[in-house]
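Hi everyone, sorry if this is the wrong subforum. Our group has a chain we'd like a structural model of before ordering constructs, and none of us has done structure prediction before. Sequence below.
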Amino acid sequence: MSPLATSLIICVILIGGALTGALLRRLVPERHLDTHTKDVVRLGCALIATIAGLVLGLLINSAKTSFDAQSDQVRQLTANVILLDHLLEQYGEQTRPIRNQLRIAAAAVADRIWNERSSSNTIYLATTAGAAVEQSIRSFTPANDSQRLYHSQAVQTINAILQARLALFEQSNVRMPTPFLVVLVFWLFILFVSFSLFSPINPMALGAIVVIALSASGAIFLILEMYQPFSGMMQIDSGPLRHALASLAP
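Answer:
Right subforum, don't worry. Here is the predicted structure as tokens:
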């Protein structure tokens, strides 16, 4: 389910919590809603609100940190691909076939990370083309000191590219744990029940509850979106990497 659909469902659940509180207010005998009960419920909900607020803040910070880290990895991957192409060009004319293969491999990796053409053929191409480039570079036999220098730097760069590729593949599948989300929504549901448990709902109060529900579900939407950095509305742009591939010599 998409983050937008999930957040909208959560928004409906929270508004339903407020309506549930209004219903309980009518069903529960008046003697059970005295001042002492109000104090207990309000103190308990204040504790839940504090915990929920801290958890939401920490989750947003964690998701934003992860999103920024993966964005940096994409930029570093782009820079390393351009650098590797430059090193191969400086090594000699005999590396032109490998450079062409590098461009194909990098395009396949981009398709795989962003799931723009997710298929078994794309996965196979991203794996085999990258392995062929790595094997070709490692099998070089430098003929002079200059080539030995470029070969050493190329090996280091291909290692960095492989590490970044594996990290991006793994992180592209990271999701917010469902039990964690369920518990967080339960806390928020209890809070919304308390909003209308002791006070009648009028049009102004209902409008305020809807806005608060949208704000809370919007925070969860941001968290879910940032946990999916290669899809959705807030995805990391693949344009810089693809523009870099277009600039590589054929």
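For your construct planning: The mean pLDDT is 83. The chain has one domain: 3-247.
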